[in-house]
Design a protein that fits this description.
single chain; about 140 residues; mainly alpha; 6 helices; about 70% helix
Length: about 140
């Protein structure tokens, strides 16, 4: 499969899922909000199903991934660093009142200026962290 086809199909699936959720029940497919509602509130029924689907998809990916090809993003990073990164992302989503899926996929599709600003901050921060990591300042 060509190098652009996988990302194209992934983007189509993400966009279709976000659009389908919006059409089906009027909700935004923001994972941080779905996660919070699904775990912290009693009425979070469909949110729990959505989260189980995310977990099932990740497990299916691991099952079908060749054993000799570990996920590239995890190579060379200790678990403590990955956990710290996850906590920082969680803190960022709380500060930004949303996550990359809510702002980047759904908010930009709705032409939200707040989401445009949030995505610009997400991307600039990610670029700075990658640059610092490549320069070995974070190791």
């Amino acid at each position: 499969m060509s190098s652009f086809l996988h990302p194209l199909l992934g983007g189509l699936l993400i966009g279709s899922a976000a659009g389908g959720l919006r059409l089906a029940n009027g909700s935004i497919a923001g994972i941080s909000g779905i996660f919070g509602t699904g775990l912290l509130r009693r009425e979070g029924g469909w949110q729990r199903v959505f989260l189980l689907g995310l977990i099932a998809a990740a497990l299916a990916w691991l099952v079908f991934l060749p054993a000799d090809r570990p996920p590239q993003a995890l190579l060379g990073y200790p678990l403590s660093r990955l956990v710290a990164a996850g906590l920082l992302v969680g803190a960022g989503t709380a500060l930004g009142n949303g996550c990359t899926s809510g702002h980047g996929v759904c908010g930009l599709a709705r032409l939200s200026l707040r989401s445009l600003f949030a995505v610009a901050v997400f991307m600039a921060t990610a670029e700075a962290v990658v640059w610092l990591d490549l320069a070995r300042w974070l190791r």
